[in-house]
Amino acid sequence: MRGLFTLQTLSTQKIQEIIDLALAFKGGKSSKKYPGKKMATLFFENSTRTQYSFQTAMINLGISVIGFNASASSVNKGETLYDTVRTFESLGMDGVVIRHSKDDYYKELENIKMPIFNGGDGAANHPTQSLLDLMTIYEEYGHFAGLKVCMIGDISHSRVAHGDLEIMKRLGMEVYISGPSEFNDGCAPYLTMDEAIEKCDVIMLLRVQFERHQEKMKMTVSEYHKLYGLTEERVNKMKKNAIIMHPAPINRGVEIADSVAECEKSRIYKQMTNGVFVRMAVISMVLDGNL
Ligand code: CP
Q1: For residue 81, how many other CB atoms are within 10 A of its CB?
Q2: Which end of the chain is more exposed for a tag (fewer CB within 10 A), N or C?
Q3: For residue 181, with 0-12 CB atoms within 10 Å meaning exposed, 13-18 middle and 19 or more buried, which class applies?
Q4: Does the beta carbon of 119 lie inside 6 Å of ligand 1?
Q5: pTM score, two decimals?
Q6: Rounded to the nearest whole angstrom, what is the distance from the C-alpha of residue 205 to the centroid of ligand 1?
Q7: How far is the CA of 140 from the centre of ligand 1 (A)?
Q8: What's the pLDDT tens digit per position in 131-159?
Q9: Alpha-carbon distances, residue 3 vs 83, 86, 114, 118, 262 (angstroms)
Q10: How far apart are CA 17 and CA 240, in angstroms?
Q11: Residue 84's Cα: distance from chain center in Å?
Q12: Residues sharing a CB contact under 8 Å with residue 211, sequence separation 6 or more, in sequence order
């Protein structure tokens, strides 16, 4: 299969190559174009950043973009994921981006020959989110080894947490988790909020994913904010050069105070900007046969 499904199968050297190319696109040092190519974005779950930054990346690379509205498509007539993707391949697409609620959905697509870019599968992977997170950290610090990051919030439902955790550890970062015990799936050592704030170089907040919860959260959102939200008081206790990240969408007033979302330490909107360049790099490397 061609494309990008998970970072687990990529070497750290290849991940650094992607980040370097993304930085080259950002710095105007690469202006590669792919005229005549066509790609589609097949989103079976809601998305703003991933869907539209992939589309922006395609436009920047001179690739024609085909949108897809799952609710107005033949998916509603029972067409399977495989047959939907096979259809886009038959239409002559040079690649598709897919987001789907099922973990590892791409394992059903082994017969597809066109490149597939995973825009998120269930609670498992979100490789371009992980790459843009890494690019943002690399731009800040110039290295990964030894940096301490704490992911705080709804860990158990987060494909970002699970994807980032594996690659960050491989890159030599110390990774911790924090937040309510009901969301702690034991994927990394636990820190209290106070410990995380005092110790870490990167505070990565995660959205409470109410839409994925089988059971109602045990506390109210205001209790959550008080116990685990990043407030101005907590920001003032962070290390001098520490940064705040969040994959977004953000729940202002829940995991992050409104006044903190765009404060001097926040890199949340920079992450979104970097997402375009990371997606340009990934598309370019796959189309060139380098990924
Ligand atoms: N971060 C992220 O994946 O955002 P969207 O769900 O809006 O794509």
Answers
A1: 17
A2: N
A3: exposed
A4: no
A5: 0.96
A6: 14
A7: 22
A8: 999 999 999 999 999 999 999 999 988 88
A9: 18, 15, 8, 8, 34
A10: 30
A11: 24
A12: none
